Amino acid sequence: GAVVSQHPSWVICKSGTSVKIECRSLDFQATTMFWYRQFPKQSLMLMATSNEGSKATYEQGVEKDKFLINHASLTLSTLTVTSAHPEDSSFYICSARDLGQDAGTQYFGPGTRLLVL
Amino acid sequence: GQNIDQPTEMTATEGAIVQINCTYQTSGFNGLFWYQQHAGEAPTFLSYNVLDGLEEKGRFSSFLSRSKGYSYLLLKELQMKDSASYLCALMDSNYQLIWGAGTKLIIKP
To answer: Among partner residues B30, B42, B43, which is closest to A103 by beta-carbon distance?
Structure first.
């Protein structure tokens, strides 16, 4: 149980385009999902908390107009990187909180590697 | 505020035992998690402690002392595949995870 999928796993795009990443909880409902970014050899960095049916909460320094988050259902959250630039190239990882597990354990998707040329 | 400390890197030998420590300071506490992250992959959940004591799961065990703000992850019978980063994460009073920087564990034959 507690499986989270993420799609796509790899994206290569030109500068200026928008990229949409999907995060799905496959066997549980997740009212809360999280979006992280991780640069090579660095720690996980929380970008935003995605709440089903309401606006996402963004961490300080993360541009909400650039990283659009939609959590329209209990099993799906999407992150759209708008007008992507090379500095947005990173490993984007989502997690979903399973409230049926210990205080709401976060289970991670496999991640999406974004390369902006 | 909150603060989490864990060693940056540790080295151990295949077949041996290693203990990765995590100390924390927090005003609100709803548990402590350990995750494993292999290079280039997303983290995977290992363990959760909210009460003092030792939780054992096969070769991996996790310990918590709330009064000391201290946890450790114990890995027994080390295998080469255990080479990874181990992340300690604290769940605060708002049920948000506060992440440690991770400990890179290197296993040598």
So the answer is: B30
- Whether residue A5 is predicted with pLDDT greater than 80 in this model: the reply is yes
Taking residue A101's Cβ as centre, other Cβ atoms within 10 Å add up to 15
Asked if B31 lies within 8 A of A111 by C-beta distance, the reply is: no
Specify burial of residue A34 (Cβ count, 10 A radius: 0-12, 13-18, 19+).
buried
CB contact under 8 A, A107 and B96: no
Residues of chain B neighbouring A43 (CB-CB closer than 8 A): 99, 101-102
Provide, as residue numbers in chain B, all residues whose Cβ is less than 8 Å from the Cβ of A34.
Answer: 97
* A19-64 tens-digit pLDDT: 999 999 999 888 899 999 999 888 889 999 998 888 899 999 999 9
A97 chain-B contacts, CB cut-off 8 A: 95
- The separation between CA B101 and the C-alpha centre of its own chain, rounded to angstroms, equals 11
Please tell me what DSSP assigns to residue A74.
Answer: T
Residues 6+ apart with CB under 8 A from B57: B46, B47
Residue spans of beta strands (DSSP E) within chain A: 4-7, 10-13, 19-25, 32-38, 45-51, 57-58, 67-73, 76-81, 90-98, 105-108, 112-116
Mean predicted confidence (pLDDT) in B49-56: 95
Name the residue of chain A whose CA is nearest to B49's CA. A102
